[in-house]
Each structure stands twice: as structure tokens, then as C-alpha cells.
């Protein structure tokens, strides 16, 4: 299992994007079908609990800010930032009560895998 | 069990807290914590021969509300930029 580091995560985001963007059409952008496959295969736990990721069509339209019917990497990076924000909020909603700063599980729900797993 | 991709997203939260919890407010990183984050997680930013940065200039670039701290939203802005840079580097 990979350790949690900023660099490792950046690499995973770029590699995963290319894994699906390469399937068809523009090799450096995700079309609707590729986006849907990526979400279902790579974020199966998150999509269950995320408001943002539930409606793929709506999400796609929101991300495709230049309206070229493809989500390029810049638009994809915005989605990742939004999901990081949402999983952090969930970690606070699910945090055990008590003093100090603590987190519960994020968007994956009650059974939390360790970072990088 | 989360997927590798989901783990990488949660890891982005963990990285922020790893440094922010050491000093001051848990959701705002002061200069000292920010320095440690940069020096540990991406020291290349300080030694890039084409565009060398200091910790001070990097913090200024992300600190949009100018309070000398990097809060969680500003951190998201920073990692979005780092993602875009990493993607560009992957095509070189």
C-alpha cells in the first residue's frame, strides 16, 4: 500500500485521469462516458455518500466550464478539490464527540480505510 | 475499504492536518507549519531552477485573504494548482 504523501496523491490523480481519458476521443480529456466509468470504478464508496457526485450529468455540465463537451484536466482538478472539501466536511460530521480536533470517516462512510489504502 | 483513488483524496485532508495541527488553529496553517509542509512534501518548488520560490512567496501566492495563514480553502487552491502542474509535467 502506498504511503500518504502529497506527491503520491498527485500522481494517482494524473494517472487515473489518463487511464480513462485515453479510452476514446480526445486522449487528454474525459467525455461523459469516460467520466461516468471513472466515478463508478474509482470512487464507488464516495458516490454513495456524496451530494456532488450523485448526478453525473449535472456534475459534468458544471465541471465543463468551457462547454466543449469534454472535461479536461484543469476541470477535473476542480472536481478533486471539491471532493476533498466534501470528504473533509463529512469527517467533521462523523467526528466522535469530545474535546479537541478530531475526524470521523469521510465520504466512504463508517468503515474508514487508512490513507493510501 | 476505500479505493486507491479515494485514499488519495482522503490523504489530501490528512496532509493538511499533519502540519496544521502542530501550530495554532487546526484549519489554518501559520508560516512555520506551511514551511514544514513545503519542505517535507514538495521541496522541489524551492529549488526549481526556472522559477525558484521562497516559502514566503509561495504563502503569499495562496493567501488570498492576506492573514499570513493558509486556511483549508486556500490549501485547496494550492493543491489544484499543483495537480495542474503535475499533469503538465506528465506530458513532458
Automatic annotation (TrEMBL), chain A:
Occurrences of domain EF-hand (ranges): 51-86
Presence of the UniProt keyword Cell membrane in the record: yes
One annotated GO molecular function: antioxidant activity
Membrane topology summary: Peripheral membrane protein
Gene Ontology terms: biological process: apoptotic process; autophagy; chemotaxis; endothelial cell migration; inflammatory response; innate immune response
Keywords assigned by UniProt, alphabetized: Antimicrobial, Antioxidant, Apoptosis, Autophagy, Calcium, Cell membrane, Chemotaxis, Cytoplasm, Cytoskeleton, Immunity, Inflammatory response, Innate immunity, Membrane, Metal-binding, Methylation, Phosphoprotein, Repeat, Secreted, Zinc
Main location: membrane
Localization (cell): Cell membrane; Cytoplasm, Cytoskeleton; Secreted
GO cellular component, one term: extracellular exosome
UniProt-listed Gene3D superfamilies: EF-hand (1.10.238.10)
Region (Disordered): 90-117
PROSITE patterns given in the database record: EF_HAND_2, S100_CABP
Assembly, per entry: Homodimer. Preferentially exists as a heterodimer or heterotetramer with S100A8 known as calprotectin (S100A8/A9). S100A9 interacts with ATP2A2. S100A9 interacts with AGER, and with the heterodimeric complex formed by TLR4 and LY96 in the presence of calcium and/or zinc ions. S100A9 binds quinoline-3-carboxamides in the presence of calcium and/or zinc ions. S100A9 interacts with amyloid-beta protein 40. Calprotectin (S100A8/9) interacts with CEACAM3 and tubulin filaments in a calcium-dependent manner.
Name under which the protein is recorded: Protein S100-A9
From TrEMBL, chain B:
Signal peptide span: none
Start and end residues of each EF-hand domain: 50-85
Keywords from the UniProt entry: Calcium, Metal-binding
Molecular function as annotated in GO: calcium ion binding; calcium-dependent protein binding
Coiled-coil residue windows: none
Domain of life: Eukaryota
GO BP terms: endothelial cell migration
PROSITE patterns: EF_HAND_1, EF_HAND_2
GO cellular component terms, semicolon-separated: cytoplasm; extracellular exosome
Gene3D superfamilies noted in UniProt: EF-hand (1.10.238.10)
Protein name: EF-hand domain-containing protein
Species classification: Eukaryota, Metazoa, Chordata, Craniata, Vertebrata
Amino acid at each position: 500500500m502506498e504511503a500518504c504523501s502529497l506527491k503520491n496523491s498527485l500522481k494517482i490523480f494524473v494517472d487515473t485521469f489518463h487511464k480513462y481519458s485515453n479510452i476514446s476521443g480526445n486522449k487528454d480529456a474525459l467525455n461523459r462516458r469516460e467520466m461516468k466509468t471513472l466515478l463508478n470504478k474509482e470512487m464507488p464508496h464516495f458516490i454513495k455518500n456524496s451530494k456532488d457526485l450523485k448526478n453525473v450529468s449535472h456534475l459534468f455540465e458544471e465541471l465543463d466550464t468551457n462547454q466543449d463537451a469534454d472535461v479536461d484536466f484543469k476541470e477535473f482538478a476542480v472536481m478533486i478539490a471539491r471532493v476533498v472539501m466534501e470528504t473533509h466536511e463529512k469527517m467533521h460530521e462523523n467526528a466522535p464527540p469530545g474535546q479537541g480536533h478530531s475526524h470521523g470517516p469521510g465520504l466512504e462512510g463508517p468503515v474508514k480505510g487508512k490513507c493510501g489504502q | 475499504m476505500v479505493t486507491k483513488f479515494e485514499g488519495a483524496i482522503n490523504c489530501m485532508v490528512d496532509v493538511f492536518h499533519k502540519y496544521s495541527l502542530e501550530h495554532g488553529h487546526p484549519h489554518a496553517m501559520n508560516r512555520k507549519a506551511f514551511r514544514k509542509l513545503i519542505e517535507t512534501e514538495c521541496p522541489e518548488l524551492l529549488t526549481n531552477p526556472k522559477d525558484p520560490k521562497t516559502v514566503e512567496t509561495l504563502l503569499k501566492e495562496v493567501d488570498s485573504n492576506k492573514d499570513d495563514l493558509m486556511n483549508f480553502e486556500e490549501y485547496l487552491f494550492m493543491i489544484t494548482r499543483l495537480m495542474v502542474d503535475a499533469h503538465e509535467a506528465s506530458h513532458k
